[in-house]
């Protein structure tokens, strides 16, 4: 109820801030027509995504429309090459800002993000892309899992919601990691995000629309789910690589401390706004981050909500290497392919040696963090912080 009302308010609000409403029939036709007239776009998956754009059951909201528009222009024309429209051309200006905001990402990269967003919205993979993806398309709803050349790729696939993690997505990620750990054809797993975000952390909607009398049960269930989720990362026996393709928030940042390598694009940021949300650290970060970066630097993130650039995260040991945004996919692919062809048993035993040193401490930290969070989710501070997030959205 709350969120629907918010959307109605938003959709009739017309022009507000960075966002505009492509609400006239002409603009909408232009928007849909645009999907059909890409110039020189050769990729079959791109063509399929363009077609799919016109079959979406639900029209995307304005923010996503601008993102799709900008990625389409970047994919077909390259970096923004038109003059900034006049101050009163609100729609033209918002579109110009969206396109120029993509900077100099390559046409390939833009095509890929375009395809991911549209397939995410359509909720399935284009047949062409399924083929291209290799052996196994995912049977999941909010992530996309593909296995090819010994690599299991797990794509967080809710681009319209910045890949925020719902109850379902937590379970799907646990399932995908468990499946990859048992599949002998897989020697390495990679996690990355669809669209321009890696992941915006816990979906704050997880705690909304819950009858107050059911809150204690929600908190208990959430505690158990989080404990299982983090355990899946602690005990994953094969190399686990993070490909942080954009901003990362909350639990998607903290569990990176349990990965074996983390590659970040130079546009990625790392933010754990726990105390702003009346919450507390999770993902074993209360144990791993002080070890990685020292107490005061860890507190800067976990207590004082400092957002790190990719280079700062690399200096603190959370990121292995920062790579240029427009060659990020290719660079990560090279590193992953190298790991994939290493003698798998040797790699697994090497990983076990390292992980066994602190496995017990990690499980202890996870248990403790989940216990504290169970209380936090029931606190006035947390409820108020989450409500204000959605109230702020409603005002836009
Ligand atoms: C089992 C339970 C385990 C719990 C474990 C606990 C974990 C702790 C955490 O993870 S704390 C961190 C939680 N995450 C956040 O606080 C981030 C909230 N989101 C934002 O601040 C912003 O959305 C942003 C900075 C990530 C992106 O801002 P931007 O303006 O670029 O984009 P929008 O805000 O318009 O986002 C697009 C739509 O996506 C929705 N959305 C984004 N993030 C979340 C989220 N975490 N939860 C729910 N919804 C999210 C946003 O509301 C927009 O939706 P709309 O188009 O319907 O308005």
UniProtKB/TrEMBL annotation:
Specify where it is mainly localized: other
CDD domains in the record: ACBP, crotonase-like
Pfam families, A to Z: ACBP, ECH_1
Q: Which domain of life is it from?
A: Eukaryota
Keywords attached to this entry: Isomerase, Peroxisome
Residues of the ACB domain: 42-127
Q: Give the reaction(s) catalysed.
A: (3E)-nonenoyl-CoA = (2E)-nonenoyl-CoA; a (3Z)-enoyl-CoA = a 4-saturated (2E)-enoyl-CoA
GO CC aspect terms: peroxisome
Where in the cell? Peroxisome
Q: Which GO terms describe its molecular function?
A: delta(3)-delta(2)-enoyl-CoA isomerase activity; fatty-acyl-CoA binding
Tell me the protein's name: Delta(3),Delta(2)-enoyl-CoA isomerase
* Species per Swiss-Prot/TrEMBL record: Branchiostoma floridae
Gene name, Swiss-Prot/TrEMBL: LOC118417198
């Amino acid at each position: 109820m709350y969120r629907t009302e918010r959307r109605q308010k938003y959709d009739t609000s017309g022009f507000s801030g960075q966002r505009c409403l492509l609400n006239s029939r002409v603009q909408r036709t232009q928007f849909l027509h645009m999907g059909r007239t890409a110039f020189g776009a050769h990729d079959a998956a791109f063509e399929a995504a363009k077609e799919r754009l016109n079959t979406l059951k639900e029209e995307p909201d304005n923010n996503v429309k601008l993102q799709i528009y900008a990625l389409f222009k970047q994919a077909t024309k390259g970096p923004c090459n038109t003059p900034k429209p006049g101050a009163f051309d609100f729609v033209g200006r918002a579109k110009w800002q969206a396109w120029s905001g993509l900077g100099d990402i390559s046409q390939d990269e833009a095509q890929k993000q375009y395809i991911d967003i549209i397939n995410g919205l359509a909720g399935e993979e284009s047949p062409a892309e399924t083929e291209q993806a290799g052996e196994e398309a995912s049977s999941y709803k909010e992530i996309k899992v593909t296995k090819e050349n010994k690599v299991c790729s797990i794509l967080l696939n809710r681009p319209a919601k910045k890949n925020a993690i719902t109850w379902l997505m937590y379970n799907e990620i646990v399932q995908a990691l468990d499946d990859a750990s048992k599949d002998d054809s897989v020697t390495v797993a990679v996690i990355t995000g669809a669209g321009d975000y890696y992941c915006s952390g816990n979906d704050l909607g997880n705690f909304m629309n819950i009858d107050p009398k059911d809150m204690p049960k929600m908190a208990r269930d959430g505690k158990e789910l989080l404990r299982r989720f983090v355990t899946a990362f602690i005990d994953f026996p094969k190399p686990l690589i993070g490909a942080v393709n954009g901003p990362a928030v909350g639990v998607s940042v903290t569990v990176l401390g349990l990965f074996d390598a983390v590659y970040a694009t130079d546009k990625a940021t790392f933010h754990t706004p726990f105390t702003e949300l009346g919450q507390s650290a999770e993902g074993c970060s209360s144990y791993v981050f002080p070890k990685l970066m020292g107490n005061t630097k860890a507190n800067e993130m976990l207590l004082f909500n400092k957002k790190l650039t990719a280079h700062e995260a690399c200096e603190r040991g959370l990121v292995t290497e920062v790579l240029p945004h427009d060659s990020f996919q290719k660079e990560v692919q090279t590193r992953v392919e190298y790991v994939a062809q290493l003698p798998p048993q040797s790699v697994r035993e090497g990983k076990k040696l390292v992980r066994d040193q602190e496995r017990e401490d990690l499980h202890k930290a996870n248990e403790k963090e989940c216990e504290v969070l169970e209380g936090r989710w029931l606190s006035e501070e947390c409820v108020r912080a989450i409500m204000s997030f959605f109230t702020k959205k409603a005002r836009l």
